[in-house]
Structures are given as C-alpha cells and as structure tokens.
Design brief:
Shape: globular
Largest sheet: 4 strands, mixed
CATH architecture: 2-Layer Sandwich
Number of helices: 4
Helix content: 40-55%
Number of strands: 4
Order of helices and strands: HEEEHHEH
Strand content: 15-25%
Structural class: alpha+beta
Number of domains: 1
Strand order of the largest sheet: 3-2-1-4
Amino acid sequence: MDKKIRRLRRARKTRAKIAELGAIRLCVHRSNTHIYAQLIDASGGVVLTSASTIEKELRDQIKNGGNVAAAKLIGQRIAEKAKALGVEKVSFDRAGFAFHGRVKALADAAREHGLQF
C-alpha cells in the first residue's frame, strides 16, 4: 500500500466513528500549498461552511498557504463561521493526517476561538 491509501484507511475509521456519534464534523485537508477546513452536518451530506487558504480575502493576509501561520488563521476563521451558524460542538476529523504541525495548529486555533471538540 502506498502512503495515500494508508491515510485514507485511517480516515475511514474516524469517519465511521463520527457517523456513529451523529456529530457535526470539522474536516481538515492539507496539501503542500494550502489547508482546507469544512463543517459537515451529521448526515454527512451537506457542507455547512468552509474556510481555506485559497479564499480571496485571505490571500492578501498570508504569504504562503502551506505553513503553520496560515493554518492558525484558517482555524480562527472556521471557528468564527461556526459561531455565526450557532455551532459550538464538533467532532474533529483530521482525514488520516498526523495530529501535528499544520493540523494541530488549526485545531488549537479553532479551540481558542470557541469550538469544542
């Protein structure tokens, strides 16, 4: 198995557990150049809101979308959007990525700005 298949297998286990809990999911995806976050409803079919480093408003504020500073900004932005929707409690779906670096920075920033998971 290659690296991507192993990551997707880990992600599938997490998503199955979150679906069993029936919670709103904060799903994170990272690439070499950008980081993305989505709030997905409990049924798993509807994206409630999203934030990413490719948004036009954020491109002016960040120099590089693939670093920890950008991830912190996305964590803050997704928390603010979630609060606007009235969502405070979510389940964190790291999509099989290791919980360190950019993924951890996004999670910590989201927690600091009011999301609970």
